[in-house]
Every structure is written in C-alpha cells, then in structure tokens.
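Quick note —
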Amino acid sequence: MNILIYSNIILWEDQFASTFELIKRFKKHNVYLLTCDKSLNSCPANAKKLLHICEICQKHKSNYNKKSKVENISINLKDIKIDEKKISKDIDKIKNFEDLVSFYYYDLPAGELASSQLCSNETSYKLDDNFFLNNKKAIYFEILSAIKLYLSSKKIIKEKKIEKVYVWNGRRSSDGPVNFAAKNLKVAFKSYISNELGRYTLVRGEKIHSYTEKMKKFNDAYKYYENKVSKNEKIEIFEEYLKLKKKGKFNRDKLGYNNNYTLNFKKKINKKNLVTFFTTSGFEFAGFSDWKSPIYLDQYDAIKKIILDTNLSKKFNVCIRYHPHLKDAGKIEKNSINEIMNIKRENLIQVSYDDEIDSYDILENSLKIITFGSTISYEAYPKKIPIICLAPSYDDQAGFTYKPKSHEEVISLINTDIKPKENKKSISHALCNKKKFHSFGYKNLSNIDGKYLYKGNKLRLEFSFYFRLKNFLIKKIFN
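Predicted structure written out below.
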C-alpha cells in the first residue's frame, strides 16, 4: 500500500514523535513523508515565518529523513500556478469573521482553516472588524497558502498513487488542506496527534477536533464497554476521571480550582440562587461550523444577550465565571471580556479570569449552570446541577444537558425550575480517558525525561556550534 504521512510540526519533538512512530508502524508498506520546504505561509510552530526558525526546521528535517529511511516529498507551493488575481478579488470581499469562515475554494473550507491559524496567532476566539481592516495581506497569504497546499497535495496523491493519507492535526491552513485533497480524490485519510507522553490518537476526520468523530468516539466507547465494565467499576472510573480533572494530571490549579481560594467565595460573592455561566477558553475551535452555536455568534454574544434581556428573572443572581485560562487570551478576546465586565446590573456578578475564587465553590453554590462547551458539565452532573449548554460540546453524546434552540428558550430555562437530566452515557468521556480508546502507545520509540529515543539514540539532532552561529547571524540580519 502507498501511504502518505504529512507533518508540519518538525520543530515540536513531542508531536513529530507520533509522525516517526507512524512511519515505523507502516514499515512494511511504501511510505512517503510529505513536509514543508519553507513555502508554507505559516505553521503552528512558526506563525510569523521567521527565517531562522525555518532554517532550524529544515535542519531537523534532514536528520529525521536519514533516520526514517523513507522518501521525503516537499510540498513545493512555489511551483503551484493558479489565478491569484481572481482569488485576490474574492478574498477582498472578506470584511468580517463570518465572511472569512464562509470562504471556500471549491470543496476546500479555506476560510475556516485560515481562521483557525489566525485565531491561534491572536489567542482569540474570534477576530474583530479592526483585525480585518489592518491585516488584509495576512488573510490573503494564509488563504492562498491553504489553496496551494490543497492543489499540491492532490497532485502528489495522484502521482504517487497514494491509497491512504495521515495528516497531523488538520485544523489549520498549514495541514487541513492535505486531508481535503485526499477526500476530494476519494482516498482514505486520518488525522493524528500526540495526546500524552508516549501515545498518539488517530481520528477518521478532516481534523482532530471533528465534532462528528468526537461523538462517534464517545459512542463507540460506551457501546464497547457497556456490558464489559461492571456498574461499580463505571462509578470508580467516573470518580477517578473527576479527580484527574480537579487535581490530577490535568493540573487543575491553573484552571481556578485551588484549595487556597476556598474562603474567597464567601468574601467576594456569598450570594444565593446563583445561575452561573462558565465560559471556555477553546480558541482552537474558533471558526469551525461543526462547533458553532445554533443561537449565538460566540460565548460573548450569548452573555450580553442573556444579561441584557429584560425578561430575565430577578429571582436569580446571574454569575459569569470567566475561565482562568483567559488571562492568556489576546487583545481581541480581552476587549470582548472587558466590554461585558463594564456592564453593571442588579443581580449580576462577574468573576474575572484572574479573580482568586475557586470555580468549584461557585459550581457547588449554583442552582443551575450555563456552558458554551465547557467540560465543567461533567463536574456538575454528579452534583445533580442542571446544565444548559449553548453550543456543540463533548457532553452532547452523553445527553445530560439541556440544548435550547433559541434565545427565548434559553431565557425560559434560566427563569424556570428545571430538573437535572440523567443518562447512562455520562460515563463515555471517562471511559475513553481510562481505556485509552482510539489512543495508541509507541512501540518504536522510548522516552527518557521528555526526550525521545530510537534504537537507544536521541531522535532529535543536537546542532553543531557552526550551525548555531550561522543561525544566530540569520536571526540578527533577517528578523
């Protein structure tokens, strides 16, 4: 079988390790490694396309090629000829975020993929009108690069008679087009990513974050283990999962779950009848239609419309808990937060991302919660707290949240007494985590202190003094 593996993250050792593992996993097949030759407009590890970083990437690529012993193909985007004037005219029509994410090049959602990279650059859930006024060139080149990668990949898949394609991540303009090229040619494809030390995940979707594939994964896990795991073991698995979320490997102290903050709830809030909106920090989902709310433009649009609605009952105190990760958000997203923080209303409490208040204290004092995809729903579920979810979410498959279809229904659910939903499938996410469903361990690589070894030798190259000096001069001269 002819297999094409695409990787644009050679600079990230932990992520390229999964690429190398796939190469060795398929050693009995005819494997091609498709990589960048400095012709991408950007990549996750080098968003600004700094020359000295490109040089480091190419040096690592040369080393990996020697160790992988497979044919390396360069994307050669500079050789792809298209009507750039026509594309430029089409891109000029993009005036806002909705225009961008709606931009297609035939069956390639180039706008969605470009928005994912641009939102990552800005560390923001959306891009505002000022961004579109001041970054026309950046938008143009990001979309153009996506289109050229799509066309180049189609050409390579045809020429090499590729029968299966593996693409790292798939959510950005620098990787997603390869999956869509395979899809267009009716060639099987999967997205992959390193998900924890020494393991990687494979997904039959255009991107690792595919909503459809996430739901299918959770459903498959539930069906597979439904009769293989006892009721008591399911309870233990769910409790272990919640402990991990709170204080285990997920490092919840950074997410506002801190025992040192427990007294601050009474000092700073101490309100009853709380209905709490827990925001999310998931800018990696920005722009994708499969994760778009059927009601609101984004979570900030939802918050504003809810707290300003004159029909909102005054018998409740509405609390907005901004996710602690939002302290690292970019200027655009923080502007949205600050705009809402300036709204003053009776019965409105706003807890900033940097307020030292334990999110669990807020949760435990809430009559019901509102989420925009936040996984705090899993913590709310065993406490029998009703959950109103306003956007596609990991917990959709579990079926224990209210999913309103209009703003009016949202207000109605807030204003009325609702009972918590129960569903046996609430265990699905915990089962996937515990049983490593669709997650594979490395068989060809070992890891010692975060460094990957292949046959006892370091996978990653250590640069010579000459190369480091040369690269230092490139950085000083060209950047």
